[in-house]
Design goal:
membrane; globular; transmembrane transporter activity; 0% strand; ABC transporter permease; cell membrane; mainly alpha; transmembrane helix; ABC transporter involved in vitamin B12 uptake, BtuC; disordered C terminus
Length: 420
């Protein structure tokens, strides 16, 4: 009598682990944050090229006989756009001719590193104001008051810069601390009102922007603050002991960019490694649930706006102690409002905000050379910045245009899809 014995089922082969290169190639054309960001910049450059051609009457006139000789219009368009973007690159990063002149001893190293110096100079205050907006976003607040907080940072740091007479080093630290305190106080007000009365931070911070600007305009005309040798609205000169150390002229980059990198690392640690960062993210994700878990939503809102205001105040301090040496009505420029766009471009991530600020600084520095060399208006560079933000803010459109796959959730795909 024979007994049928069932054969054991074949052992399942364990799936082979995919290597890094395989995962990278599979994710290269997926809808992760990095790919969408780069494609958004590419789309903005394409649309910008069209605007450059349309805005040039000489090139546009050649399209009148496009069907007869298309090479004239296409060749002129290519020459114009390539020259414009070449100037954008040379003005933002480096000019090969300047490096060649430096190596041949016919030029200086300051000329060779001038473009990157301008990029970092423009980017420095935007890192701080961008972090102020990004941090508030992560906590569920819309800090549109970065401009006013930066202005107050300029005021406090500037007054400390010429009113105090302290040894070098100590004077700089005191001036930076005063700038931080000025921005923190201006951030405390909307945070406190939000926590205690429920007043929307957008409304209160917008009003405080106007208040800070008007206060600055009034202050620089007062005796003891206004430059006694001038009749216009300008303050005394900040002491050299309070100025941020900078590279030799004509380079303008200063120690503020190093401080910006250190602060970015600090904000990243605060968000991801500290208990306050955990409370901040919990409150931003679901305030009722955070309150049920025993977290004080009102306290978190207040502290969040204080920290965000302090960051923006540091941006104002870096502006007045590093780039400018006096208080004027326009000393802060638009660094607070530009910081809002930088935070959006950086996906509200600390390191993403840093890179976005450098990109904005590069566009600004390169745009200056485009304007001088080719005659392209600086407003066109502003349009380019806006286009980048628009495309990044509409990832579904970018995905549809380039037919991107959904981002994979495994290892490399997951890490890439989380952003910067």
């Amino acid at each position: 009598m024979t007994t049928d014995v069932e054969a054991p089922p074949p052992a399942k082969e364990s799936p082979k682990e995919e290597g890094f290169l395989t995962l990278f190639l599979k994710n290269l054309w997926s809808a992760n944050t990095v790919t969408v960001t780069f494609l958004s910049i590419f789309l903005a450059l394409v649309v910008g090229a069209i605007l450059i051609v349309v805005s040039d009457s000489a090139v546009l006139s050649k399209f009148a006989y496009f069907t007869a000789r298309p090479s004239d219009a296409l060749g002129s368009s290519w020459d114009l756009v390539s020259a414009a973007y070449a100037d954008l690159f040379k003005g933002a990063l480096f000019d090969p001719a300047s490096f060649q002149a430096w190596f041949n001893h016919t030029g200086s190293w300051q000329q060779a590193f001038g473009p990157i110096s301008e990029t970092l100079t423009y980017a420095t205050p935007l890192v701080f104001t961008g972090l102020a907006v990004a941090l508030a976003f992560r906590g569920g607040l819309f800090n549109i008051g970065g401009q006013g907080q930066a202005v107050m940072g300029c005021v406090f740091a500037g007054v400390a810069g010429f009113a105090f007479h302290l040894p070098p080093g100590l004077h700089l630290i005191v001036a930076l601390l005063f700038g931080l305190i000025g921005g923190a106080l201006w951030g405390f007000l909307p945070g406190f009102l939000k926590a205690r009365t429920g007043a929307h931070e957008v409304i209160t911070s917008i009003m405080l922007n106007y208040t800070a600007t008007l206060f600055l305009g009034w202050l620089i005309l007062q005796k003891g603050v206004q430059d006694p040798t001038r009749s216009d609205a300008i303050s005394k000169t900040i002491d050299s002991s309070a100025a941020l150390p900078a590279l030799p002229e004509p380079l303008r980059v200063h120690l503020g960019i190093v401080l910006a990198v250190v602060v970015t690392a600090g904000v990243a640690w605060l968000l991801n490694r500290s208990s306050f960062g955990f409370e901040l993210r919990a409150v931003g994700a679901n305030p009722p649930a955070a309150k049920t878990a025993g977290m004080s939503v009102a306290r978190t809102y207040t502290l969040l706006m204080v920290v965000a205001g302090g960051l923006a105040g540091l941006g104002g301090a870096a502006q007045v102690l590093g780039t400018a040496d006096k208080l004027t009505a326009q000393v802060a420029g638009n660094i607070g409002f530009d910081g809002l766009l930088v935070a959006l471009l950086g996906r509200n991530k600390p390191w993403g905000t840093l890179f976005a600020a450098i990109l904005y600084g590069a566009l600004r520095a390169g745009g200056n050379l485009m304007q001088v060399d080719i005659g392209i208006s600086l407003e066109l560079v502003t349009v380019l910045q806006a286009l980048i933000v628009i495309f990044i803010a509409a990832p579904a459109m970018v995905k549809a245009i380039f037919q991107l796959r959904a981002a994979r959730s495994a290892r490399l795909g997951a890490s890439m899809s989380k952003g910067w």
